[in-house]
Amino acid sequence: MDIVGPLSKTTRSGKKYILVVVDFATRYPEAVALSSIEADTVADALLTIFSRVGFPKEVLTDQGSNFMSALLRSLWQKCGVQHNWASAYHPQSNGLVERFNGTLKMMLKTFMNQHPQDWDKYLPHLLFAYREVPQESTGFSPFELLYGRRVRGPLDLMRDEWEGKAAPEGESVVEYVLTFRERLAELMGLARENLARAQRRQKVWYDRTARARAFATGDQVMVLIPVRRNKLQAAWEGPFKVIKQLNEVNYVVELSNRAHHRRVYHVNMMKPYYDRGNVVLAVCGHWEGQGDDPLVDLFPGTKAGSPLEAIPLSEQLTPGQHAEIRGVLHLYRQLFSNQPGRTNLTVHRVETGSHAPIRCSPFRVTGKTAQDLEREVRDMLAL
């Protein structure tokens, strides 16, 4: 079950929300127009539905305050209903009702153009149209799976009138009940086969990009949370601490030190947090020895040449090999110098493709930093 709204058009009776309940077995939907989504209003609407179809064994909702209130928890407990809830900001957990919500919104959007303030009166007609259409996963209409027969819609009534079909002769109650049970068992068997086939197809499609992830208690994680000002945008926030693991895909995450700031998140909304430590940006410069110069010389010794005798050689070499290597070093002293040089033997190019150059606007720097930068440019030009 879920709540749709608030809708853009409010009816004359003040209805602007819709309570949606969908049966997992048959895909049969129920919808009740509401003027508010307070817990007592939602409870009254649920009782009107349960009085016709009976109380369920399990219900699945999101973690909205209207479903998680003390009143609804008391209702579930008194009626022997197990309450399951979807992880935060992960509508795939309750994808069946979310998919129906999208279909219902499209139907209402088209219908509201003609009846902007009376859509609550015509809501049963929209539900009737949805219930008689075969569902893709099961292969049957929700009405047929619930009642064991095809519903007679407006088109069926017109066809019977055109064809002049007479009403069939009545049958006994026992015959009807036995036929109904056989028909229903046959429909449910076929529906299970179609549903299993659809689930296998959807699993293959989902597993193409899915990756297994797991977190342990105490791990630091980042959580993908929608932005408050725009629910269509989301950002990674954290780090937060994992309190415990509920099952393979759901974790309880502590959003702050307060006990009531804990929520259940799906693993798809989480990623591990890595502490990168301190990041230091260094700029080349000379050490003056006076004051606190924040610039660091990244190339020490490139200005003054060091003697070749200071180059360390392996101690495993014999004295003759040492002398031979020293001779080679003196012969090619320019190659072994610690100062950058030039060559005309090769050319290095950086291919940037069709990407345009990055333009950076000029900005002012302090006098001390400007002197260091000018000195660095002069040294590079000299080298």
UniProtKB/TrEMBL annotation:
Gene Ontology molecular-function annotations: nucleic acid binding
Write down the InterPro entries for this protein, in alphabetical order: Integrase_cat-core, Integrase_p58-like_C, Retrovirus_Pol_polyprotein, RNaseH-like_sf, RNaseH_sf
Q: Which GO terms describe its biological process?
A: DNA integration
Ranges for domain Integrase catalytic come to 1-150
**PANTHER family given for it?**
INTEGRASE CATALYTIC DOMAIN-CONTAINING PROTEIN, PROTEIN CBG26694
Record protein name field: Integrase catalytic domain-containing protein
Organism of this sequence: Gopherus agassizii (Agassiz's desert tortoise)
